[in-house]
Amino acid sequence: MGFRNLPTDEARPIAGLIESRQGRVSSMALASGGAVDFMLMAFAAGESVSEEEYFGDTLYQVVEGMADVVLPDRRVAVAAGEAFMVPAHIPHAVEGYEGSAFKIMQLTIPEERK
Length: 114
What we know:
The protein has strands spanning about 25-30, 35-45, 50, 55-70, 75-80, 85, 90-95, 100-110. By secondary structure, it is mostly beta strands.
């Protein structure tokens, strides 16, 4: 496992590494397998990820726009530059704040196997 799809020639804004496409959610793996799953996603206006539950803590950091993390009991607005963590086994969804487009990084660290 290692990083991929990240610039090595010069520093660039993370939001510029992926483009929004009308009517879809675009995703790019930045690292996967082993200890972490790390993705960059671009959501077009009106797009969302339906409720999911992960087997590890999941950190979301918005890199452009604003998103809502929808939990069973509340909605949490997350603006560009902000981060929010959802503990393992908590079902949640991610959508644009008031239906807007946004870009977000998702980092999930699986629970240790016993």
